Amino acid sequence: MSVLDALESGPASLAQLVQITGLARPTAHRLAVALERHRMVARDSQGRFVLGPRLGELSIATGEDRLLAVSTPVLAQLRDLTGESAQLYRRQGEHRVCVAAAERASGLRDTVPVGSELPMNAGSAAQVLIAWEDSERIRRALRGAHFTAATLTQVRRRRWAQSVGEREQGVASVSAPISGPGGRVIAAVSVSGPIERLTRSPGRLHAQAVIAAAERISEALHSSEAYG
Asked: Which residues pair with 100 in a beta bridge?
């Protein structure tokens, strides 16, 4: 559990696992490799340990994923309010995964199927998921990114992000952070659609609605933690 807890905030090398958990290096390695065999832990492209796919499978199987449970109706409300597709993203290693979505019923839209893995170097949701990381993780994430450290500073200040043609040409999006117990950012809620509708300043249109949706989800998570 110490190893899994250590990986909750993102990828970690063996040396980082040792530092975070306080375990002896051989013990940390043995436990991490054993967890990897059971798919509870995996490796990213740099060989660092990350939370594995089995955890997501177990969460879905139990039907008790509080984040998905409280997010589903909020995403539908956000879609109806903005007229655009709404998504929920979590970070998994070097990618962000769409774990829930409410699609626009008709017309031109940005469709992101649930389960899609998108890069962390572009898009407003990526900005949000990176902005509150520690300085070392931010520094690594900015290598090859389509946004800058100044962009992330602005995201932290106003608590929303926007992108225009960053991940995909012709697509714009707005995202805001969802915080779990303790205030740590655990996910991002987004709306996305064609630039023709969202304009080149999508935040001006939809930032307040996206922030309000993120706050509703965060509050529901905090309430279920306190009373559930």
From this structure: 88
Pairwise CA distance, residues 79 & 84, whole Å: 5
Fold of the CATH domain 2-60: Arc Repressor Mutant, subunit A (1.10.10)
pLDDT of residue 179: 92
**Cα angle vertex 121, ends 89, 214, to 5°?**
30
Tell me which architecture the domain covering 65-227 has in CATH: 2-Layer Sandwich (3.30)
pLDDT in tens, 118-154: 989 999 999 999 999 988 889 999 998 999 999 999 9
Question: Which stretches of the chain drop beneath a pLDDT of 50?
Answer: 63-64, 226-228
71: which residues sit within 8 A by CB, 6+ positions away?
88, 100, 178, 187, 189, 217
Whole-number average pLDDT of the chain: 89
Q: Where in the chain is the domain with CATH 3.30.450.40?
A: 65-227
Reported as half-sphere exposure (CB side, CA atoms, 13 A), residue 18 has a value of: 9
**CATH 1.10.10.10 residue window(s) in the chain:** 2-60
